[in-house]
Every structure is written in C-alpha cells, then in structure tokens.
Amino acid sequence: MTEKSDSVGIVEACDFVFGLTEDDYLPLDCGRKLGSVNIRYETYGKLDDNASNAVLLLHALSGDAHAAGYYSADDKKPGWWDEMVGPGKAFDTNRYFIVCSNVIGGCSGSTGPGSINPATGKAYGMDFPVITIADMVRAQYRLMRHLKIDQWLAVAGGSMGGMQALQWAVSYPDAVKGVIAIATSSKISPQSIAFNWVGREAIKNDPNWNNGDYGANVPRQGLSTARMLAHITYLSDESMLNKFGRSLQKSDKYSFDFDYDFAVESYLQYQGARFVDRFDANSYLYITRAIDYFDLSDEHGSLSGTFRHMKSDFMVISFSSDWLFPPYQSEHIVKALVENGINVTSCTLESSYGHDAFLLEVDALSRMTGDFLRNLQAGGNGQ
Hints:
Blueprint: E1 14-18, E2 26-27, E3 33-34, E4 37-44, E5 54-58, E6 85-86, E7 91-92, E8 97-101, E9 116-117, E10 122-123, H1 133-146, E11 154-158, H2 160-171, E12 178-182, H3 190-204, H4 220-234, H5 237-243, H6 263-276, H7 281-293, H8 303-306, E13 313-319, H9 327-339, E14 344-349, H10 357-360, H11 362-377
Parallel strand pairs: 5-8, 5-11, 6-7, 11-12, 12-13, 13-14
Antiparallel strand pairs: 1-4, 2-3, 4-8, 9-10
Helix pairs in contact: 1-2, 3-4, 3-7, 4-6
C-alpha cells in the first residue's frame, strides 16, 4: 500500500444479518423467501446529523463491497473504484457518507449459493433460489434501514451496478434523490443474453461442476472460459488493437500448434485464471441470470410507463465504443425520462476503452458525477 492524501486508507468490511425469523425473511421474485441473509458492506466518510449525505455505490457483475481503500498496510490493490472514492474525489468522503455492499447471490461475503443453507447445514449450491436485480435492491433496502438512512442522496453504479441504480428509483422512489447510471441498460440485448448463456454452458459442461455440488474441486476450466468470453465483451476492437495488435507472446514465429501464440490469447488466459481464484462458479450462474431477467419495461408495458412515478434526478452516461451496453440503450432510458418530465443529464463520452470505460475514464466521470452530486447536495436538481 502506498499512502496517498486522497485515499480513504485502511478500511474494514462489515456484515449485516437479517431474516433470522420467518417474519423477517426476504421475499424474492421467484416466489421463494430467503432467510438468514448476510450483507457484506463497507462505508467511507461520515454520516451527517440529518443522514442526508449518504451515497450508495453499486457494483458490476464480478465486483464486491470493496470499492475503495486497502485492507492492510501490505495490501497492494485498492478497491475497484478507488480512483473515484476518497477525499476530494468525485465521491468525496469529506462531503458524503459512501456505502457499498456486495449483492446477494455473490461470493464476497453476502449470502449466495456458496453460503450455508440453515435448513440443511450444507452449502446451498443449486438449491439457492434464482434471484433478480430487484431482489438485490430489496436486500440493500434492508441495509439502508439498518444504517438509519431514509433517503440516499444518490445511488450510483456502472454496468450491472447501473441496473441496480435504475431499479432503486423504480422500487423505492421516495428513497432516492439522485441516480447516476453509467454504461448500463434498462434491459440487455439478445446478443448479451447469448453471451451469458454460452458462459453458463461452459461452466455447466465442466466435468467438475457436478450440478453445482463441487466443493473444493471447482470447475476451473469452465469458469475461466466464461470469464474469457465475457472479458472480450468488455473491450473494444480499437482498445484490443492498441493494446495487443497481432503481437506474438512467446517468440517472433508461429508455433504451429494450438497453445497460445498471440499476446491477446495469453492475456485472456491470464484473466480467466485470475478470475477463478476470486469468484465462485455458481455465483456466476446466478448473477448472469439476474442480468438476463432484468427488464424495467415489463411491469408497466413500456419504459415510459415504468418511469411515470419517478421522483429522482438522473445522470445517464454511456461510452461511444461500448458494444456490450451501446449508447442507444442509454438513449432509450433518457427518452423515457424526458417523456415524463424528469430532470435528466445525459452524455455519451468518446472513449476507445469499450464497456470497461466506466472503470477507466476517471477524469471525465469525476467531473460529471462530482458536479451532479454537489448540485444535489445544494438542494437543486442534479443538472
């Protein structure tokens, strides 16, 4: 760890447990209820006397509650949005009380398929109920009440985190003053559903998967392949060309075999192997299915109908080279908001990074989100 004046420094993860009695279970969209639920979360900054400066950060598919800071002085890697969270940064911990929680269904502390099922004393595995984005938000709402917060100043996230931010405004309109939705969609495309399907099939067809009951003998190859496939969708053609071109990895000649020759192949292999060491295969199945099912237009027949009762101000940001959640999907969100007379600021930022731009275009995102939050806090709309 390198100490910086704009870092939140050493942080600790916290746990909130609810649903210990049947009347406190979490109802799910699939019709089941989830009991004995743990939510892993982290906080940065201080909650003001009126609890009016709280901001909820929402992570993407493979993220977790560790958005900023370090777990120890020896920790070499900070939280996933560390460049955006801290004193003087966009999510300024001198001004705001920042909360980030791991979603249910995950594998980084919150209850998921790898957790112990209290009814059996064994890991849930595929007995874990199928969850939705709305279920994730219901669990976060329990955490909000636990923290004695009545309204978020803002909810913010990119990719699947942006989906959760949108769902917050729909499910709890009085509990959200502002929404920052980045590189996201109100529903994913058939192409994205197809990528998720192939990734899940890779996991399920790994001989170690054993219908989700794999214990320590994890389906490494299947999960690694799923991650490699997904990682391609996070990049753009231009970013891959700039980063790798057709460079060879091991020598200046083709090997004339089927091991990796190209630098891009070696990179994907590394990403897949690293992912297996930190993520659970069953969680990957459940979370990608939740993304598939997300469709804000379902309940009211149209996105405009869904947004009819929105009370939040919105900032919607997309990126020019993002082909996983392309700009037109953000434009659909903005159009539905405008049709309902809702305050919305929108922008498509020029970037070559593809979908990963929501993690990499820090300067532009910092300016936009910082201004939006300060305006919300000042009492006006976020524009």
